[in-house]
């Protein structure tokens, strides 16, 4: 199969395939040829920035390049970082404790209200469980249809103070269990990078607003007085 080579602003790369499970496959991935239903990206960075993640243990030349660029950014004065990129919060979900389960998997394990079933005996990847969506109250059994929502979105955090953090602080924030919820994929995509004044879940609005503001204050993020006032008004309305 012929593969066209594309050029993006930060890396030469073959077409990147983002599978329906949001995994970014470069041409180096052993599953690249098998992925038939996918969204196409011209670079690994673009795929990751869209919410995708790398296959577990995958170390492609493109990924190595992205990681080196990201690490270089960490050594640059934060005043020089003027625009948001997903890679500024790490290259996908991190396995900070090196136990083979990344933060997505750990969120699925900790938030399941029933027995968790793994894909294999290594217990690195979750296949099924029983999750009650905090956005709707719906019960979900299939891990593959779940998105892990950042209660305080990464771009929102970037726009309200995270641009001044170190790279390691941003990685910690992106993988903090206090900021992660197992929810329906469609609602997570609908929410995007919106704050409380722009989007609320269909159910449990009080709990969502309170958690958003708790995470925001924990990390000393600083919305404008006008935005903060609208958040306080929303909490007063829904938590009355």
Short description:
The chain is 32% helix and 16% strand. It is of the alpha+beta class. The protein starts with a strand and ends with a helix.
Structural notes for this entry:
The structure is a single chain. The chain has 240 residues and is of the alpha+beta class. It has 8 helices and 10 strands. It has helices at residues 44-49, 61-74, 103-111, 154-159, 167-174, 185-191, 205-218, 225-238, and strands spanning 5-7, 12-14, 16-19, 24-25, 38-41, 117-118, 126-132, 139-142, 146-150, 180-184. The longest helix has 14 residues, at 61-74. Mean pLDDT is 85; it is low at 1-13, 60-66 and 72-80.
Topology of helices and strands:
Layout: E1 5-7, E2 12-14, E3 16-19, E4 24-25, E5 38-41, H1 44-49, H2 61-74, H3 103-111, E6 117-118, E7 126-132, E8 139-142, E9 146-150, H4 154-159, H5 167-174, E10 180-184, H6 185-191, H7 205-218, H8 225-238
Antiparallel strand pairs: 1-2, 3-4, 3-5, 6-7, 7-8, 9-10
Give me the strand/helix succession: EEEEEHHHEEEEHHEHHH
Low-confidence stretches: 1-13, 60-66, 72-80
- Main sheet record: 3 strands, antiparallel
The helix-and-strand class reads: alpha+beta
Strand content: 15-25%
Could you tell me how far the N terminus lies from the C terminus, measured between alpha carbons in angstroms?
Answer: 61 Å
Q: Give the neighbour order of strands across the main sheet.
A: 4-3-5
Shape: globular
Mean pLDDT, to the nearest integer, reads: 85
State the share of residues found in helices, binned by percent: 25-40%
């Amino acid at each position: 199969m012929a593969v066209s080579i594309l050029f993006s602003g930060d890396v030469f790369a073959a077409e990147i395939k983002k599978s329906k499970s949001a995994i970014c496959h470069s041409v180096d991935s052993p599953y690249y040829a098998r992925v038939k239903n996918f969204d196409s990206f011209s670079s690994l960075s673009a795929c990751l920035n869209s919410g995708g993640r790398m296959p577990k243990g995958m170390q492609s030349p493109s990924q190595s390049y992205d990681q080196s660029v990201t690490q270089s950014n960490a050594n640059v004065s934060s005043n020089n970082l003027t625009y948001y990129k997903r890679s500024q919060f790490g290259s996908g979900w991190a396995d900070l404790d090196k136990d083979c389960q990344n933060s997505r998997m750990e969120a699925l394990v900790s938030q399941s209200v029933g027995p968790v079933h793994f894909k294999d005996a290594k217990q690195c990847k979750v296949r099924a469980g029983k999750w009650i969506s905090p956005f709707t109250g719906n019960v979900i059994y299939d891990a593959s249809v779940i998105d892990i929502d950042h209660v305080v979105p990464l771009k929102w955090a970037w726009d309200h103070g995270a641009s001044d953090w170190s790279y390691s602080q941003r990685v910690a924030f992106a993988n903090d269990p206090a900021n992660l919820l197992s929810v329906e994929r469609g609602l997570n995509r609908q929410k995007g990078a919106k704050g409380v004044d722009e989007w609320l879940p269909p159910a449990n609005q009080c709990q969502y607003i309170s958690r958003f503001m708790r995470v925001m204050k924990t990390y000393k993020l600083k919305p404008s007085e006008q935005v903060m006032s609208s958040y306080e008004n929303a909490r007063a309305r829904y938590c009355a």
